[in-house]
Design goal:
Blueprint: H1 7-31, H2 43-62, H3 64-103
Helix pairs in contact: 1-2, 1-3
């Protein structure tokens, strides 16, 4: 039996992986003095922010399919929850109507 991760977990892992790749690439460019380093001890923060800014549009373009799959999963779950709440509300309404009709 093969285990397939949920689309949301897969998208999150791919997004984190893309951030790590960007972080390592930028760290290497800063180390080689292609990009400027941060002031004092802020170098790590500088590299993290730059990696975040670069990985965000890349993930928007590169991970479109995985994001769409995750979106479908979330919308299906929301719809199932909405239907369950509606059916519970109708059962409660019927019980309330039955109680009111016996009290009258």
């Amino acid at each position: 039996m093969s285990w397939k991760p949920s689309p949301m977990l897969r998208y999150t892992a791919m997004r984190a992986g893309l951030f790590v790749v960007c972080f390592l690439a930028i760290w290497g460019l800063v180390y080689l003095h292609v990009l400027p380093a941060g002031l004092g001890k802020s170098n790590l923060l500088w590299v993290m922010l730059l990696a975040l800014v670069i990985s965000a549009p890349l993930s928007y373009v590169l991970l479109r399919g995985a994001r769409d799959e995750a979106s479908v999963q979330v919308s299906e779950r929301v719809e199932r929850t909405r239907q369950a709440l509606a059916s519970q509300a109708s059962v409660e309404d019927e019980a309330d109507e039955a109680t009111r009709s016996t009290q009258s």
